Amino acid sequence: MPSRQLALARPWKRLLVGVAAGSLVLAAAGCDSSGSDTAAAGDGELSASQQECVDKANEYLDDRGLLPETLPEELTPLSKPPVEGLTITRLFPGSVPTSAALSQEIVDLAPVVGWTGRALSYDGSVEDVNRKALEAIGYSDIVVIDGLPAAALQEPIRAAEQNGVLLMLGSITDPPVSVPGFGGTPLGGDTAERIAELAAYTFMQATNCQGKAAAFGLPVEALQSQGNHMAEVLEAECEDCSLSYTDIPFSDVGSPAATNTVVSRLQSDPSLNFAYFTIGDLAVGIEPALRQAGLDVQVGGAIPVSQNLAALQRDENAFWLGVPQGMTAAINIDTAARVLDTGQPVAGDYYPVPVYTPDNIESTDPIPVYPTDYEEQFEELWQVG
Predict the structure, then answer these.
(1) Which domain of life is it from (predicted)?
(2) pTM listed for this prediction
(3) DSSP secondary structure, 138-206, as one string
(4) What secondary structure letter does DSSP report for 82?
(5) Distance of alpha carbon 381 from alpha carbon 20, whole angstroms
(6) Cα–Cα distance between 296 and 310 in angstroms, integer?
(7) CA angle 349, 305, 296 (to 5 degrees)
(8) What does the angle CA 30 – CA 34 – CA 38 come to, to the nearest 5 degrees?
(9) Taking Cα atoms as reference points, which of 243, 160, 261 lies closest to residue 204?
(10) Under DSSP, is residue 324 helix (H, G, I), strand (E, B) or coil?
(11) Which pLDDT score, from 0 to 100, does residue 385 have?
C-alpha cells in the first residue's frame, strides 16, 4: 500500500496533500477519475498476485482522482500582497525546449504580482550556469535555477546572500537554508518521489501489473530520483514489474542520438515492453522510431510536451503525468512570494498534477492545466487582481 510518507499518492480528499498523481500534487475535493479502466498491455488471464496488484492500482487512482479541481490546501493566502517592482530571472538550459517554455511562462506571469520576469539561457554545463547565475544576481531580486544541487552553486549562493537576493533552486531535495541566499525550492523536497509513486501505480494499471520498463531521463537529480523511486515502488508492490533507468545527456535532446539510445536499450532486452520518460522532450518522435525498429512497446511518462499529448490523443501512448508550464510557473512565483512574505526559507513541494490518458485528454497545445481556474485561485492567495 502507499506509504504514509508519500502522502500525495493517497486520496486527495483524505490526505489533502498536494502533488498527487502526478505527483506533484494534492488535496482536492473531487477529481475526475475517468481513465481508471484504461486498457492494459498484458494479455490473457491474470494470476492471483497480478489481479491483486491491478485492483490495488485501480483503487489508488480511483481514490485520488486524475484531474485536480483545487489547489493544495497547504497553499494558504499570503499575509499581504507581494512587494511590487521586483525582478525575477530564471536560468534554463538552452537545449531543453520544455525548460525554455517554462521560463517564458514565468516572464509572462510575473506582472500579475507586479514583478518583471526575465529568462537567461546557459549551455547545460555547471561552469556556464555558475557564470550566468552571477550575472543574473547582479540585476535581479529573485533568481531561479532548476535541477542543480546547492553544492554545485556555492559561489552564486554566497553572492545572493551578500547582495540581498533570493536564490531558488528548483526540483532538488536540498532544503533551503537562508533569506537572502538559497531560500526556496519550487518543486523541491519530496516532489519527485510523489510523482514517482503516482507514476508507479499508473504504470501498474496500464500494464496489468506485467510491465517491464526502460526509463529515460536527463542528468538532473529530480528526474533521476523519479526513475529510481518508481523502481523501488514497483519492486515493493508489483512482483511482475521492473524498471531500469538510463540518463541521456543534455546535448542529445532533440537529436537522433537520444532516439538511438532509447531504441538500443529496448532492443538489448526482449522482455522490455514499456518506454517510460521522466521528461517528455526525450520522447518526441519516438513512436515512428519504435515502429521502424520493430519494437512493440507502450510509451508514457511525466512532464509531457504537446507532441507527447498528441500521441496520447491518437491512442499511441498509455499515459502522461502532467507538469504543465502554466502551473509550474505559478508555483515558482508562489514559492518566491511565500519566502518574501515570511522571511523564511520555503520548500515549494505542493503541486496539483493531472494524469492525462487517452480518455480524458482534451487539448494538446496548450497543455491543459488543472484546476482549470488555477490563475484565479492563485490570485486570491496572492491577494492581487
Answers:
(1) Bacteria
(2) 0.83
(3) TT-SEEEEES--GGGGHHHHHHHHHHT-EEEEES--SPP--SSEEEEEET-TTHHHHHHHHHHHHHHHH
(4) P
(5) 21
(6) 19
(7) 110
(8) 145
(9) 243
(10) coil
(11) 78
Q: Which residue has the cell 482534451?
A: 362
Pairing of strands 142-146, 166-170: parallel
- Statement: residue 29 has pLDDT above 50: no
- Give 173-182 contacts, CB < 8 A, sequence gap 24+: 173/221, 173/225, 174/149, 174/150, 175/345, 175/347, 176/339, 176/345, 176/346, 176/347, 177/150, 177/345, 178/345, 179/339, 179/340, 179/343, 179/344, 179/345, 181/157, 182/150, 182/153, 182/157, 182/345
Going from N- to C-terminal start, the domains of the chain cover 52-68+191-321, 87-187+326-351
Cell numbers linked to 101: 517554455
Half-sphere exposure of 382 (CA within 13 A, CB side): 28
Q: Which band of pLDDT confidence, cut at 50, 70 and 90, is reported for residue 44? A: confident
Contacts of 35 (CB under 8 A, 6+ apart): 61, 66, 319, 355, 357, 358, 359, 360
Task: Report helix, strand or coil for 94.
Answer: coil
d(CA 333, CA 277): 27
pLDDT over 60 at 55, yes or no: yes
Q: What is the pLDDT of residue 133?
A: 98
Helix H or strand E segment including 348: strand 346-348
Distance CA 148, CA 171 (A): 8
Question: What kind of fold does domain 87-187+326-351 have according to CATH?
Answer: Rossmann fold (3.40.50)
Are the CB atoms for 145 and 182 separated by under 8 Å? Answer: no
The average pLDDT across 22-30 equals 28
Residues 25-30 have a mean pLDDT of 28
